[in-house]
Design brief:
single chain, 250 residues, alpha/beta, Protein-Tyrosine Phosphatase, Chain A, 11 helices, globular
Amino acid sequence: MERDPGLSGPSNFRDLGGYRTTDGRHVRWRRVFRSDALRLTEQDVQVLRDEVGLRTTVDLRTGFEYGHQEGGGNPTHVARLAEVGVTRHHLPMIDETRVARHASDIRPPAAKGYLKMLEKGGPALAELFTLLTDPANHPLVFHCAAGKDRTGVAAALLLGVLGVDDDTIIADYALSQENMARALAKIQARPDAERILAGRPLAAFEAPTDAVIGFVESVHATHGGWHGAAAAIGIDDATVQRLRDLLLTD
């Protein structure tokens, strides 16, 4: 099965299914997706509604981003999400009082930044995992602005507690680098590209593998591994077991 369902609006939308766990099972396909902001085309609406059957979206961006940027408050994109028939949840991972007004993955954090994002974003991540324990919410997609930093942290934690090995978690994160190049090319092809890119460094379109490698190492050094990190932010063993029961298959 293809990891990319073939959307033309989002640049970093992909399935987290198919990954092998250390006990020989696999993450189920078409249950959980990760993405950048959901700027859907009409064709995307058809794919998500009729082929994927998407039921739930979880937006990890700040309130400012959610209410004022495309895929959040933009009427066209809100209407298209409504056409898909999803239930939308807003679970901001970042405290708006601590970030710039236009907090939208301006540049990728270093490993320590990802660890802090995990710990400070604990309430949002715990609620995301709770939503995932209800099969009525599947298929579900969680996303931020670029789909690489906040979304990358959430995806790493989910795959980690499901039992996916660290090398695979790092490889999944690395897929965002190629997708960021696609995102940049889309913007550069627009007539208003100069305005959109003004004040936005090219680092905003990078997903450096060394950052996620350092993040994975920090999770083990600080929390003793993924299960310890989950427990530290309020995700209990029962929730993890429920996720494994629902999202893993032989």
